Amino acid sequence: MEQYAAVLNFAIPAFMLLIAIEYFFSRRKGVSVYRAFDTISSLSSGMTNVIKDVLGLTFIIISYAWMVDKVALFSIESSVALYVLAFIGKDFAGYWSHRFEHEINVFWNRHIIHHSSEEFNLACALRQNISTFLGIFFFLYFPLALLGVPAEVVMIVAPLHLFAQFWYHTRLIDRMGFLEHIIVTPSHHRVHHAINDIYLDKNYGQIFIFWDKWFGTFQEELPEEPPVYGVKKAVSTWNPVLINFQHMWQIAKDSWRTERLWDKIRVWFMPTGWRPEDVQKAYPVAFTTDPYTRDKYETKASMPLKTWVFIQFLICNSLMLYLFNTIANFSFPYLVAYGGFIVITVFSYTSLMDGSRWALVSEAIKLALGIVLIYSLGGWFGVDQYFSGATTIMIAYLIISMLGTMYFA
Fold it and tell me: I need a labelling partner for 221 at 20 to 30 A (CA). Which of 74, 129, 249, 384 fits?
């Protein structure tokens, strides 16, 4: 927990710097790749994800360390080759888990947030899920465990493998020569994020592209077919918390509404987007058929509202970084409550971006939770020892945030 939080202290500023650089060069090239609310939605999604991961709110059925202990056939000495093997094995597992998430209805809910942006930029790389509470793809690491790759090595390789998937979420880099045959490039990943029929369910590779070429899921980016980004059933919201559970809610409704028992069961495990025939007729859902005629989701907003939302995002980000730097000082229930406070804050200001009445409801919950936490701890998580009067400022923020949300709502 503490180690990952410490890594994020460096990773988050680095990501923000790269996003700023991409924005600068996109303006220089006259290419529009960022929209204000879409970017805030992406960055806010990243916040909720790292909070969930830092707090360890995913239950692992079988841990990798347990598998190594039980099935390892070899004991491998630490070396550069061992780390390379672990990295390749992690990428192999990543290819298949990624593919399952795209091709099986229930697993798509874990991944839809990442594809929900109708832009393609470095910020959208940070759209990661909070809906995965159960680690079920442990079996994909069996080959590594069988070879005896130590759990400590996999733990070191895992964040490096994750962060290495950030850079290729961009439209500003074209083809990359011979590297196109080895690694996942921006061109490959633009294909993966596109909703054009020819590009759907292609290029699942995370670092190496040869998995797709070996397993028949590779598609080259075509000059005559510019990628259009998003998901076939547009999410039509800036709220990343809602996006995380939209697809699951749709499956649950379809399972409840269909008359056949067999359809109630198989709707969860059929190919992504499959719906029972009777439900499809009674409750039709609009899907994009021609990506070039689809309008991007947009909401009207004044400059004061955009400024207000941006300030809320900055405050929320600061509160998150404070959590990461004091995480060892508080018990787990309080850390979960702190994480919940940030998620509710994100829910509130992204609902305001949507023009939704839920902004007021969530803001009221946030105010109540903030007051309870301050009263219970005698201050805001020990912040007064670093900055005198900080708790008073926090209380003022809670009140102003409530009043501001009421005004803009």
Answer: 129
List pLDDT tens digits, range 325-340: 999 999 999 999 999 9
Rounded-to-integer distance, Cα 199 and Cα 267, Å? 24
Q: State the Cα angle at 228 between 285 and 35, rounded to 5°.
A: 95
391 and 79 in contact (C-beta within 8 Å)? no
Kind plus residue range of the DSSP H or E element containing 279: helix 277-282
Give me the mean pLDDT over the 131-145 stretch. 90
Q: Residue 87: which residues within 8 A CB-CB, separation 6 or more?
A: 157, 160, 161, 207
> Using CB atoms within 10 A of its CB, is residue 332 exposed (0-12), middle (13-18) or buried (19+)?
exposed
Express each pLDDT in 78-89 by its tens digit: 889 999 999 999
The DSSP element (H or E) to which 225 belongs, if any, is none
Average per-residue pLDDT for the chain: 95
Are the C-beta atoms of 127 and 116 separated by less than 8 Å? yes
Residue 78's pLDDT is what?
82
Buried b (16+ CB within 10 A) or exposed e, 284-321: eeeebeebeeeeebeeebeeebeebbeebbeebbebbe
Query: What six digits make up the tokens of 346?
Result: 């994100």
Q: How far apart are CA 50 and CA 30, in angstroms?
A: 33
List Cβ neighbours of 235 (8 Å cut-off, separation of 6 or more): 112, 116, 242, 243, 246, 297
Which pTM was predicted?
0.94
DSSP state of 134: E
Q: Are 188 and 180 in contact (CB under 8 A)?
A: yes
- Both structure tokens of 351: 């609902």
Residue 1: predicted pLDDT: 64
pLDDT tens for each residue of 347-390: 999 999 999 999 999 999 999 999 999 999 999 999 999 989 99
CA atoms within 13 A of residue 326's CA, in its CB half-sphere: 20
Percent of the chain with pLDDT over 90: 90
- The whole-angstrom separation of Cα 146 and Cα 19 is 40
The per-residue DSSP string of 44-101 comes to HHHHHHHHHHHTT--EESS-HHHHHHHH----PPP-HHHHHHHHHHHHHHHHHHHHHH
